[in-house]
């Protein structure tokens, strides 16, 4: 569906700050986030418990592609992400109380993995900590009228997020990968709400991502012994694919097939009158398919290998 030449053009769509650690020397990869990241792994069930592979992409997600297709040196992955997660449930409530926020996920890491138990004997110089969060924080709050301003509220979110990054740092983390929130203003969920909602969340997303980049820079300035720190901007890849949907073979970039929205038995399932599920950009109102995750993972692995 996506030619190698066009794919190579997308791989330049990132912002990175390089350090000593590369993807090829990363032995342990710890992921934190929401439905775009989770694979259903439950660390509380044990370090070596099975990975259910429950994703929102109707196939592997970016973490699974990194840990599988683009795994260079048998990097071991621990995915603590939780579908529906926000930074802190006390600031932005998730869709149900059982969802683990970033605060909860970092607590799990601190309680279970920080001690480097058997099967997870990581060290500061061979481990990468990835955080992709904010989709639900912005998506659930962009229309709030009970805050001083969206920008001020985002500052509160950033302070809370980096208080958790600080905990990871105190536990020994020295290399970080931060992903920006993708252009969810172009997801069916927002498009269906009309132009005003699209305009509001577009501004909110831009502010959140700007504050994320600034917060990463500030964190670096106050922590001089950090190693690899990368801010990967997901927006150029999403926007390039969406702007050129027909060229890339997507049959629909603004909607989805109702028959596929809860997942399908196979990654290439076709239920008439819809095209095959893999031909769509969006699986449902908010989640892109595994094809997009594959491109993201390829670009991330390339970035981290630079």
Mean pLDDT figure: 94
How many beta strands in the DSSP annotation?
6
Q: Provide the spatial order of strands within the biggest beta sheet.
A: 1-6-5-4-2-3
Distance between the termini: 26 Å
Account of the 3D structure:
This protein has 306 residues and is of the alpha/beta class. The protein has a single domain, classed as SGNH hydrolase (Rossmann fold), CATH 3.40.50.1110. Helices cover 36% and strands 9% of the residues. The chain contains nine helices and six strands. It has helices at residues 4-10, 62-67, 102-113, 135-141, 150-170, 188-191, 195-222, 235-243, 290-305, and strands at residues 15-17, 28-33, 76-79, 127-132, 176-179, 229-232. It has a six-stranded mixed beta sheet, with helices on both faces. α3 (102-113) runs parallel beside α5 and α5 packs parallel to α7. The longest helix has 28 residues, at 195-222. The protein is globular.
Give me some keywords for this one.
306 residues; alpha/beta; Rossmann fold; six-stranded mixed beta sheet; 9 helices; 6 strands; globular
What topology does this entry show?
Blueprint: H1 4-10, E1 15-17, E2 28-33, H2 62-67, E3 76-79, H3 102-113, E4 127-132, H4 135-141, H5 150-170, E5 176-179, H6 188-191, H7 195-222, E6 229-232, H8 235-243, H9 290-305
Parallel strand pairs: 2-3, 2-4, 4-5, 5-6
Antiparallel strand pairs: 1-6
Organism: Ceriporiopsis subvermispora (strain B) (White-rot fungus)
Keywords: Hydrolase, Signal
Pfam family, one: Lipase_GDSL
């Amino acid at each position: 569906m996506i030619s190698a030449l066009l794919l190579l053009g997308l791989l330049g769509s990132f912002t990175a700050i390089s350090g000593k650690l590369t993807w090829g020397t990363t032995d342990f990869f710890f992921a934190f986030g929401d439905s775009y990241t989770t694979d259903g792994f439950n660390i509380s069930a044990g370090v070596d418990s099975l990975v259910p592979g429950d994703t929102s992409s109707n196939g592997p997600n970016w973490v699974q592609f990194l840990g599988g297709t683009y795994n260079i040196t048998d990097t071991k992955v621990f995915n603590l992400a939780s579908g529906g997660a926000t930074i802190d449930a006390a600031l932005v409530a998730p869709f149900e109380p059982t969802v683990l926020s970033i605060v909860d996920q970092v607590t799990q890491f601190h309680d279970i993995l920080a001690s480097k138990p058997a099967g997870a004997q990581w060290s500061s110089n061979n481990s990468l900590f990835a955080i992709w969060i904010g989709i639900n924080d912005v998506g659930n709050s962009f229309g709030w009228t009970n805050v001083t301003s969206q920008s001020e509220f985002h500052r509160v979110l950033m302070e809370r997020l980096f208080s958790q990054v600080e905990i990871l740092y105190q536990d020994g983390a020295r290399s970080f990968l931060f992903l920006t929130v993708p252009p969810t203003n172009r997801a069916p969920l927002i498009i269906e709400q009309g132009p005003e909602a699209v305009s509001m969340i577009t501004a909110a997303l831009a502010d959140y991502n700007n504050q994320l980049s600034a917060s990463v820079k500030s964190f670096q300035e106050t922590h001089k012994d950090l190693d690899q720190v990368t801010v990967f901007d997901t927006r150029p890849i999403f926007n390039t694919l969406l702007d050129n949907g027909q060229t890339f073979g997507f049959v629909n970039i603004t909607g989805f097939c109702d028959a596929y929205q809860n997942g399908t038995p196979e990654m290439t399932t076709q239920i008439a009158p819809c095209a095959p599920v893999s031909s769509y950009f969006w699986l449902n109102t908010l989640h892109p398919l595994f094809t997009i995750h594959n491109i993201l993972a390829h670009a991330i692995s390339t970035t981290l290998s630079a």
